[in-house]
Amino acid sequence: MKFLLDAQLPPRLAQELHSRGYDTLHTIDLPLGNRTPDKDIADIAARDDRVVVTKDSDFVTSYLLSRHPPKLFLVSTGNVSNDVLIRLILENLSAVETALIQFDYVELSRTALIVHS
Question: How far is 87 from 38, CA to CA, in rounded Å?
């Protein structure tokens, strides 16, 4: 599975995912860095078959209206420390990956993994 992490997520999460064998980019790795427009992020994800990982509800709107990006992983934990955020994602990574194989839009809150069909 390939991921593209949006700017609100810590670059350390990209490093953690990469160390676990996932092909992972962070917006900071792109030519415009964290200033990369959402449309460009969605376009890159579509072109490279990546899942956009974000906390940004604008991606949800875009997904619901036009299925762009084609695969979306929304992190809806609210304000938590980076350590808590990374731990929560890594603890649920297997379930997230399984869900993303079958579904195109998955959401992780502090307490639940939600599959949107």
Answer: 26
DSSP state of 27: G
Is residue 32 classed as helix, strand or coil in its secondary structure? Answer: coil
Rounded Cα distance, 31 and 62, in Å: 22
pLDDT over 90 percentage in the chain: 99
Residue 21 has a CB neighbour count (10 Å cut-off) of 8
d(CA 47, CA 91): 28
Q: Which helix (H) or strand (E) holds 2?
A: strand 2-5
pLDDT tens figures, 67-93: 999 999 999 999 999 999 999 999 999
Residue 117: per-residue pLDDT: 86
Q: Is the dihedral of CA 81, 112, 4, 21 positive or negative?
A: positive
Is residue 84 a contact partner of residue 111, using CB atoms and an 8 Å limit? Answer: no
Tokens 């579904």 belong to 103
What are the sequence ranges of the domains in the chain? 2-116
> Under a CB-based contact definition with an 8 Å cutoff, are residues 39 and 69 in contact?
no
